[in-house]
Structure formats: C-alpha cells, structure tokens
Amino acid sequence: MSLPTVNPSVESFASDETHIEFPSIMVEEEKKYSSEPHFIAPLPALPYLKAGSFPESPFNNTPASPYLNRASTFDLDSGWRRRQAILRGEKRKVKLTKGHFIAEYRVPTAVHNAMEKKYTCTKSTEFSHMRYTAATCDPDDFTEANGWSLRPKMYGRETELLIAVTSYNEDKALYARTLHGVMLNIRDICKTQKSKYWRSCAEEGTPAWTKITVALVVDGLDNMDKSVLDLLATVGVYQDGIMKKKVDGKDTVAHIFEYTTQLSVDDKPQLVLPQENDDGSNLVPVQIILVVKAKNQKKINSHRWLFNALGRQLNPEICVLIDAGTKPGYKAIYHLWEAFYNNENLGGCAGEIYAMGGKRLLNPLVAAQNFEYKMSNILDKPFESSFGYVSVLPGAFSAYRYRAIQGRPLEQYFHGDHSLADRLGEHGINGMSIFQKNMFLAEDRILCFELMAKRGEKWTLGYVKDSKAETDVPETAPELIGQRRRWLNGSFAASIYALVHFWRVYQSGHNFVRIFFFHIQALFNAFNLFFSWFALANLWLTFSIIIDLLPANIKGANLVFFHWFHLVLKYIYLGFLAMQFILALGNRPKSERVAYTASFYVFSILSVYLIFSSLWLTASSFISLESDIARHNYKNTLEALKGMFETPIGPLTAAIVSTVGIYLIGSILYLDPWHMFHSFVQYFVLAPCFTNILNVYAFCNLHDVSWGTKGSDTVDILPSVKSKASLGSNEVVVEEATNTQEDIDHFFKETVVRALAKVEEVQTIEKPTMEDDNKTFRTHLVGAWLITNALLALAIGNIGGWINVNDPKITAEQIHKFTIAGNDRRNMYFAFLLYATFILSMVRFLGSVFYWVRHYLFALCRKN
C-alpha cells in the first residue's frame, strides 16, 4: 500500500479564504500501530523566549500569541482568561430548549476543510459546527425527558463503545498521548477485517465510527491545564469565549462540547491530518463529547457524568475507562471489546498496564514499579481471572459492560461521590466511618465486587493479556509515597469489605462450581491480608535472623566484628523505621524530600546486605553438602538435603529458589522476560522500602481521605446569560455575541501555535506552607528527641564492651568479673540518675518553700 504523492514542500491546511500553510514532512508512525507512514503537518521548532518576547507565527511575519510561554501555569490561566471576552462579533438570538442553553458554533475553516470530502458533503452540521451545552443540572437529571440531548442520540445512532478519558490537571503532552492513542485504536477497530461485527457495519451502510463515541471528562475548569483546551481547540472540539457561567441565574455545572473530528495531535506534538486518496492509514471521524465540570468534585463524580448522564442517553454496550496520561497500545481497545463480544457473561475486564520504559528505567524507582506491574500482570491478574473474579480492574485502563453495572453496583459505587453527600445523608459520605471512606479510595475494587456479587446475576471479571496500555509512574520518593497511600489504604479497606460481605455471593446467579472456586479465592485473599498486616514484623525478623546466621557460615569469621557490625545495622534499621512513624505522623512527603530520600537509600543498602547474606547462606549450604554427608553419616544426598531443611537455612534456600524460579518461568511462559534483566535487581533492593516506608506512611495517614473539593474562581470571568421573550413570538431566547468566521479563523491560528508548541518540562518543587514549616519543626524536634534517647539507651545498655563467652581462653571467673564490672558501671549511671532526680526535686521544693514564705510574709505587710 503506497501513500499518495503530495507536495514535499507545503501542504495546505486551509481553504482559499483562510490560507494556513504547514511545512509537510513524512513521519513514520510507531511500528506498534502501523507499518505504514503518515503524512502530518508539524509546526516548525519554536524557540523558548524570555517573558515579553514573542516568536513570529509560522503563518506570516506577525508576532504570535503572547500566551506561548509555558514557564508557569499562571501565564496559561491568565492568557486563557483574557481570551474569554469577545471584543467584537455578531449578535444572535439562541432559542432555549426547555430553558436550557444549547447552541451550535461554526468551527474554524481550516478544521472543516481538513476533513475528507466524503464526510463533509452532507446537510448535517456535524462537521461544520461544534455544539455547546451549558448543563445546569445534576448528572442524574441530564435526560431527554428534561430537555437535554446529545448528537449521537439525535442522529439515531447506536453506541457500541463509549470510551471515556478522565482527567484532572494533566498537561497537553500527557493528554495528547492518550487522545491520539484512542483515535488510532478507533481507526484500527473500524478498519479491521478480522471482526465480522465491524465488517458488517460497513456492509449494512452504517459506518463503524458512528458506533463509537469518545467522552472527555475534565474534573474542574479551574484546576485543569489550559494548554489542553488549546489542544482540543486545534482538533475542533473547543473554542474560547463560548462557555457560560450561569443561565437564567442557574450555575452551569458542566460545559459540554460536541464535535466529530478527523484531526489529532500526537505527543511530539505534531498535527495529524487526513490525506487525499486514503490508503487506510487516515484516521476515521471520531465523535467526541467534551465535559468540562465547573468544579473539582473528584473522579467518582466524573464517572457519574459518564455513566448516569452520557451513558443513559447513549446506552452503550461497552464502556472503556482510561486515565489521561495512559496510552492504549495497538488494538488495545479492540481486544477489550473482543473479550466482551465472545463472553456474554463477562461484566468487566482490564488489560495489561506497564510503565513507560526507555531512559526512565535508569531510575531505580521506575524500574522497581515496572517489575511490580509486570509480575502482577504475569502472576496476580491471570490467577484471579482464572477464578472469574479480578479483585481490581484499574481505573487507568479497564472496561465494563454497561448493563451489567446498572443497579446496585453503580449505586454502591456512587456512595463515594462527594456531591451526593447531602442527598444521601447517612448513606453517603457524611454518614461513613473512616474505614468506609478509605474503602472508596479504591473505588474500582468496590465496583468489581458489587458486579461479581450482583443479585441473581452471574457476571464474571477477566484479564485480557493482549490488551496493553502504557502509563507514567512516579519518579521521586515523595510522589510514590503519596500515590501508594491512597492505593494501600483503599485496597486494605476494600479487601476487608469483600471478605465481610462474601456471603452475598450466595445470592448471585453463579453456579455451584464457580462459587466453590470463589471460596478458594477468598481463603487465599484472607491469607494475603493476614501476611500483609504482619509484613512489618516479618521483614524485621527476616533481616535480623538472616544476618545473625551469616557469621557462623563464614570460615575464619571475626565473630566480635560481626557482632558489633550487625548490632549497628539493626540499630540503624530500627532507628530509620522509627523515623518513618515520626515523618508519617508529622508532615507531607513533599515537605520532607531529603528525609524520605535518605530513608530509601538506607533501607536499600540494608536490603543489599540482606540479599548478599541470603545468597551466601544458600550457596554455602549447597557447597557443604558433601562434608555434611560425611560428618552426619548421611546415606545419600537426599538425606543431606532433608537435614539441611531442618535448619533455618533450608527454608531460606527454598524461598529464594522458588521465588526467583517462579518469576523467571512465568515471564518466559508469557514471552515477556525482559523485566527480569533490567528491573529485577532494583525491585528486590527497594522491596523493604515498600514495606517500611510506604506501608507505615499509609497506615499513619489512614485518616486522610481527601474528600474536600477545591474552590473555583475561574468561572467568575465567564459570562452569564438571561433569557427573554422574542419580539413577535412566545419563544424564549438568549442574545449573545459570537465571533465572525474571520475572527474564528484568526484566533485559530494562534491556538494552533500554542497547541503545537513543545512543552518545556520544568520540574516544579512545591514550596512548603506556613503550616508545613510548623510541622517540619515539630517533626525535626521529635526526631532529634527520639534519636538522642535511643543513642543514650544503646550506650548505657552496652557499656563495658563485649566478651566472647565461647573463647576457651576466657575463664568463668573472667566472665563473672566482666558481668559485675558492667553491672557496676550501669549502677553508677543509675545512681547518677537518682541523685540528679533528688537534687532537681530538692531545688523545686526549696523554690516552693520560698514562694510559700514570701506569699504569707507579704500578706501580713500587704495594704488593704
């Protein structure tokens, strides 16, 4: 398949009236998506200039928009605010629909002309106009009966796939990689020849793309990165100066934009345009519904807009959930859909999520998380999927059958929605215990359990290995700690919830065999929960026991040296473990970067020594097998191995060999062994940090459920509209100013410049607040107090040194004298404490007597 010949110097992205030219280059798509190259229209590299200097636009020699500077979020927000005012324009009257403001706006000429002609030669305004709805209602009330509507429903289209991308404050680079990945997946679904269902769509005269809708749900206008709006405006889904703050005094709850586009921006960023004489590599039209919530009300509320507002109107068969920043791989969404299509009892499924690789794997934290993700996808998810119940389908990339989650699953899920607190009363957040609130930090686990245990139904949950998605992971210790607090506390509470409510499985429609295996899985989960609870103690016992076994297995070892060396290591271990409690109860991780980073280094070093000791003991046990046979008169090697397993080294050897063996064999079976080479060591070195740092912080902050919503002042700059009766009729209309087509095209030029400007990655370190400073002082003070007391206790407890009682040269009399001398020295310190206490008490007593005498003497002399 060959690409069409195009002008190698210039490709027009414009009409005759609005001539916008982009240099054209050929850029090969990633091989995982297509072996065919794509023609895209990139923007020439723009230099990053100092504040006040603006680069020239690529369209002409006039200065570009002053909002290009990406040095701060404030510049983005302030620039966006200024663009909301329409300085000149045309006045028009918009008829309200049952009192709702719903209007269409012409898209930039360049956007419309970029579409393939076979789609634009219709009387519909789907490709020529963007539709805006100022939703002034709760998502539960966004229904046709109340006058609300969506384009796919208006056009009478059936929705097979509703793909939702939820976001908060991700930048345009993360957003572009997700949205472009989704659009590539939709192209591959619509043009696949393997599926009879999707082939039949074209044969029946219904384009496959009409059965797929993409919903972009933004959690709060004030908090979102405004560069994302430039990105969306470039593909035609958004325009500045349209959103309304209020309609007839009612606050706008969500701003809904609808447009069907064939344009995309990848994460380079470069504009991807359809080409003439499509060879199959062009993107297909994608129906996009952008929902920008006026306030930040958390992710569960975003899903309520998805399932209860959009879902009830579109009634999709499958809903796919993706977090902004997660990039679905080649045909990832198709493989999820295929799993549902071939299993009518499948209620939910998830694919494989893996960490971004490349240079990031040089960071040990990223490599450790990558190994964790990989082994979860190789061992945990397949294991659970075999039973028919995957305990967690990650919200970053998962899918549900829409009719399966209707009823109790979604009802229970939405109990965690902060915006429903007043309506639900005691059944909502306000009536929840701290345990229940933590449970909704892992809301995806609640939805999974409720779906599996749905009364009278037999829905199962599965894992789809062929479906892969790439996500970014925390790269610093504070970010990782903050992320895992929510995960660990939420999963802990949700796991207990699932075990306590396991009896509800008997009310489901699952058969006897399935329920039997659910019992086995529940027992396994209970054991896991038990060991997770005691992980802290078990890790300490493992560390202390193994290093204590080491000296006896080293020939000619200096036992005195090893005694003191291991004692120091144990004190360091316990000291830093105690410090974790102080830090966790004190300040936020972002305010204690140095302390937490140091803790990761210390526990990693201790972990290296633990690994070394374990490997040494394992190797020495096998090396000494021959001598053990002769020394203990074993008949054969089998008896020697049996004898070895009667010592602590035997189980240690078995644990190491089995763990590494299972990881390696499993990875090879799944044809994905590479993480064993580039991430295995980092994971095992950092494993104690996951227990001693992440678990301690999570449990010490069990009270932090972060339910509060943030205020918004961005909406204050948006205009409000009021309706009035139209002259000569009874219709209720709203008068508004709209940009002319000339202005729309002019502003679009500047928008494209901002959207395609490469994001300058500047690491911002959050400055501590006054409250953080106070907590930091308290943390340092308590830390110093704990450390100095520990040092004093250690010094006095070991005063006098150490004596080797196993040395044959040391007599019993010498040991007795050593013990007495040590006791005498400790007694001297104890006597010092007593005398010091006595003196301090006496001084306090004398001062009290002095006060008493003075009080009564002065009382006699006091004048009345």
UniProtKB/TrEMBL annotation:
InterPro entries: Chitin_synth, Chitin_synth_N, Nucleotide-diphossugar_trans. Its EC number is 2.4.1.16. It comes from the Eukaryota. GO terms for molecular function: chitin synthase activity. Keywords: Cell membrane, Cell wall biogenesis/degradation, Glycosyltransferase, Membrane, Transferase, Transmembrane, Transmembrane helix. It is found in: Cell membrane. It catalyses: [(1->4)-N-acetyl-beta-D-glucosaminyl](n) + UDP-N-acetyl-alpha-D-glucosamine = [(1->4)-N-acetyl-beta-D-glucosaminyl](n+1) + UDP + H(+). GO terms for cellular component: cell septum; plasma membrane. It holds the Pfam family Chitin_synth_1N. Belongs to the chitin synthase family. Class III subfamily. This is Chitin synthase. It comes from Coprinopsis cinerea (strain Okayama-7 / 130 / ATCC MYA-4618 / FGSC 9003) (Inky cap fungus).
